[in-house]
Amino acid sequence: MRFALVIAFLLTIVSVPVPAEPARQVLWIALQTCILAKKATGRTFPCLAVDLGSADRSGTAVLRAPGQPTHTVVMPTERVVGLEAPELQHASGIAYWRAALAARHFVTDALKGAIPSEDVGLAVNSEGGRSQDQLHIHLDCVKSSVRAALRVYAPSIHESWAPMPIALQGSRFFAMRFKAADVESFNPFAALARLPGRRPNLLQTSFGAISTPADDPERGFSLLAYRAPNANAEMLLDHSCSTVAKAAAR
């Protein structure tokens, strides 16, 4: 019981008024609890899954956001502050991207298979747009308005960065696409360093990744990114999965 109370405290402390820096370490503390549980008992609570990795393979953990049945985050088991971390420009960036793709089933499982894994979006926020200073990739349903816009403008998204013709959720994104055959080897963190404009400031950069429309002959992903002091591509995701919920209610 005491262990359960400690975990509950760690997962809810972010809502308590505390100094800014300690509040941004709650996810890291919860992650350490998951790692300790995995090493000591083989269990992963409060995480859904923990892969400790090895000397030549990055470890990852999967955690459900408290009180949100589908909202899932994937994070490194080692200290990586955010998407601006230099090591993400190399192999570890690909490893965490792959881990996030593999974890999409936690969202679809929560929805009892109401959507395929291809309909689960991914997002990483900027330093100012995130509440925690441990890299975490958000997974959840994609907002229906975003999905509809990408369906309309898919022909204008190519394999190099270009501005989206319209705003998404009130922000102007750059977009690029990559084919399904390249998904496993793709590094979205490295792609951010090639964003057009002034020298990239990754601290103010955020990105989302959403699968291309089902009727696309070359299925893959659209990568969407923008820069702003509080850039938050998580806004492309629907943490209520409202469209799926409405369909299920019919």
TrEMBL record:
<comment type="pathway">
    <text>Phospholipid metabolism; CDP-diacylglycerol degradation; phosphatidate from CDP-diacylglycerol: step 1/1.</text>
</comment>
<dbReference type="InterPro" id="IPR003763">
    <property type="entry name" value="CDP-diacylglyc_Pase"/>
</dbReference>
<comment type="pathway">
    <text>Lipid metabolism.</text>
</comment>
<feature type="signal peptide">
    <location>
        <begin position="1"/>
        <end position="20"/>
    </location>
</feature>
<keyword id="KW-0443">Lipid metabolism</keyword>
<protein>
    <recommendedName>
        <fullName>CDP-diacylglycerol pyrophosphatase</fullName>
        <ecNumber>3.6.1.26</ecNumber>
    </recommendedName>
</protein>
<keyword id="KW-0378">Hydrolase</keyword>
<keyword id="KW-0472">Membrane</keyword>
<keyword id="KW-1133">Transmembrane helix</keyword>
<keyword id="KW-0594">Phospholipid biosynthesis</keyword>
<dbReference type="GO" id="GO:0008654">
    <property type="term" value="P:phospholipid biosynthetic process"/>
</dbReference>
<keyword id="KW-0732">Signal</keyword>
<keyword id="KW-0444">Lipid biosynthesis</keyword>
<comment type="similarity">
    <text>Belongs to the Cdh family.</text>
</comment>
<dbReference type="InterPro" id="IPR036265">
    <property type="entry name" value="HIT-like_sf"/>
</dbReference>
<dbReference type="Pfam" id="PF02611">
    <property type="entry name" value="CDH"/>
</dbReference>
<keyword id="KW-1208">Phospholipid metabolism</keyword>
<dbReference type="GO" id="GO:0008715">
    <property type="term" value="F:CDP-diacylglycerol diphosphatase activity"/>
</dbReference>
<dbReference type="GO" id="GO:0005886">
    <property type="term" value="C:plasma membrane"/>
</dbReference>
<keyword id="KW-0812">Transmembrane</keyword>
<keyword id="KW-1003">Cell membrane</keyword>
<dbReference type="GO" id="GO:0046342">
    <property type="term" value="P:CDP-diacylglycerol catabolic process"/>
</dbReference>
